[in-house]
C-alpha cells in the first residue's frame, strides 16, 4: 500500500482571547493582553483530540512544523512526525502559517489539517487556495467559515475516512472572517475571502454561519417570555447575538452584541464579562444561562461565547440553560441537531440529549443537542 502524507499546522494562539472576553485572537497586542488576563492556549489540546483518531492508521506520514505549530501535538499522540521549517518558539506569526502551508503543498501532502479559527483559514487560503485538500480543526473564537469539522474529534474522523478512501467527495467551502476591531465596537461585518477544498460528509462538517434578519415580531415575543419569567435574585448570563439582545432591549438595557452580559433583578449587573468574572459572580448566586444557536450552524456553546466556559456551565447546571431561537432560525437549520463544543468532553456529554427552545411567548420547540 502506498504511504500517504498528512500535513498538520497548529496556530498556537488560536482562540486564546475567547474565555477572557476579547472576542478574537488576531494581532500580537491582543494575544499579549489575553495572556496577561490569564488565558490558557487551547489549540494544541484540540489538535491532539483530532490526531487521536488518526494514530491507528497504517502507511501514514505526519508532516508538521516545529514545536507548538504541530510537532508537539503529534508527539503527544506517541507518533513520530517529519518536522520541516523553523519558528521562533512563543513568537509565531501568520506568515509562519502561510510558509508551513506552502511547504506542505510542495511536499504534496494528501491532506492538510489545521487547527485555528477564521484568521488561520484565511492564511491557509492565501497560501494554497484550492490546490490541496484541507480540513479545519475548530480552535478559534469566531468560526464563521465552512471549512471546519463540527468538533476536533470529527475533524480527525473525517481526515481518517478521507485518507482511507472511504470519503472521496471534495467540496469548495467558504472562508469567511470578520473585523475584530469592529466587533469590539459592537459591529459585525463578515466578508468572503475565498474557498478551500475540503473532504465532505454532512454529519461531520459545520455549516456556514448565516446572519439572522427580518425576525422582529418573533424576537419581541421571545424577549417578552423571558423577561416575564425572570426570577428575583437570580443571575441571568446573557450570551451574544441579536436574539438575546432583544431580551435586554425589552428591559431597556444596552446589550454587548458580541459579548456576555449579566442581569440581576432586571438590571445590568456586569457588561462584557470574561470567564473569571463570571465565576466570581456565580459565588453564592443561583443563575441561568440564556443562549441562542448560531444561525446556519446551530452551535449553542463553543463558538463566539467561550466566556461561558465548561466551569461556568458546571456551576450553573444544564437544567438552568435556557435556549432561545426564532422559528425562522430553527427552520434554516432543517433537521440537524444543535451542537455543543465547549472543549470539555465531559461537559459536552452532559449537555447532549434534548432541550426545549423558547420560540415565542409560551411557545416551545424540542431539539436534539449533539457534540
Contiguous runs where pLDDT drops below 50 for at least 5 residues: none
Estimate the global geometry from the Cα principal axes. elongated
Structural class: alpha/beta
Return the CATH topology of the largest domain.
Rossmann fold
Tell me how many strands there are: 16
Measured as a percent range, the helix fraction is 25-40%
Domain tally: 2
Q: Numbering strands along the chain, what is their spatial order in the largest sheet? A: 10-9-8-11-13-15-16-14-12
Specify Rg, calculated over alpha carbons.
20 Å
The CATH architecture classification of the largest domain is: 3-Layer(aba) Sandwich
Listing every helix as H and every strand as E from the N terminus to the C terminus, the arrangement reads EHHEHEHEHEHEHEHEHEEHEEHEHEHEE
CATH superfamily annotation of the largest domain: Probable inorganic polyphosphate/atp-NAD kinase, domain 1
Count of helical regions: 13
Beta-strand percentage?
A: 15-25%
Please state the average pLDDT score.
89
Distance linking N and C termini: 34 Å
Summarize the structure.
The protein is an alpha/beta fold. The protein contains 13 helices and 16 strands. It is elongated, with a radius of gyration of 20 Å.
Walk me through the structure.
By secondary structure, the protein is an alpha/beta fold. The protein folds into 2 domains: 4-204, Probable inorganic polyphosphate/atp-NAD kinase, domain 1 (Rossmann fold); 216-370. The chain is 31% helix and 23% strand. The chain is built from 13 helices and 16 strands. A 9-stranded mixed β-sheet has the order 10-9-8-11-13-15-16-14-12, with helices on both faces. Strands 3-2-1-4-5 form a 5-stranded parallel β-sheet, sandwiched between helices. The protein has a two-stranded antiparallel sheet with strand order 6-7. Strand 9 (261-264) and strand 10 (267-270) form a beta hairpin. It is elongated.
